[in-house]
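call fold(seq) -> tokens
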Amino acid sequence: MTYLSTIHVDILMCLALLPATGVAVLKLDKSIPAHRLLVAVMACVFILLVLEACSVALDTNFNATVHDDARLVPFGKLVNSIGFLLVPVPAFLTWIFLHHWTGVRLSASSVLPWAFPLACNAVLAMLSYNAGLLFSIAPDNTYSRGPWFVVSPAMFYAYQALALSVLIRQRNRLRAEETGLFTLALLLPAATAAIQLHYFTFLTMWSSWAIACVILLVAVFIHSSERDELTKLANRTAYRNAIAKARRMRELKMCVALLDMDGLKAINDRHGHAAGDLALLTLAEGLRETFGEGFSVMRFGGDEFAVVQFDNDPTALYERLCTLENTLAAQDAASGRPYRVAFSYGLACSRDGESVDALLQRCDTLMYDRKRQKHLKADATAP
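ret:
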């Protein structure tokens, strides 16, 4: 690539990444660690794109006008020192991001050993300013790789491999589209980095990292669009997607539990909407803790929840619903709350030849029958 075309590529990627980073900063929930880590990755890649553009502008290999301008040598060394220092950082942050995203939190003590190579790389990058370990800048502003250059890309690939291993190990915690997008975001920079390692004048690595950042952001927004804002459970969109998946099945195998929280309106009226929100959060947390892998738990509006299992054996689903009822009853007895957190449910599993709509209608009817029986029982026992 010529100097001008390389600068254009970097500028184009900066122009694409800058607004994407701005959207991430403004729209993502920064109280979520994974979101903060994604913003950090995007900011780091943006800085590296700028540094790469500056490095190209200061390198005689690309820009013949800087030949023999000794005043620019310190700037070239500084730009490349910072650049090499940051090379493994996006991959390292992505590795931590994927742990948080899949719910496998890393303690500071467990991260520290894996961060040690970053410190070693940083020392090498700073020493290279004068010693030329990772790179060297000749008096005529010609850049060349140093004898220890391989250390930096080796660390990058090591962290990329670690991140990919997280996806492989935790794939059951991710939906197929999440796994696909995250895998693409990891493999794209790895592939283009290999090209750049072989042909150092083809500077494609950080441009592809910018694309990877946008892919990660898209994955996060897709996930957020299917999450309920209050409870962080899957929302109505996710419920519709689950039903659409069921409609595409040749042979319907599906169990559905529709849940309706008891007395939410009364809680809001008597104790305020903050208490109503807390009651919803209590039920949502109970659902989250009770139903693990193999179940999709959703809040699709107001006081309505659903649990979907793509199986036609109701045993596991029924047992967990009973467990949740007992757990909530025990919490009510111990908490001293002036209200109860309880729910009514209908549970139905697919029958031979039954449509999805018929299954959902049957489940809905069962739920309201149970709710009506609760009201009749309450009225009968009232003084």
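The two ends are 87 Å apart (CA to CA).
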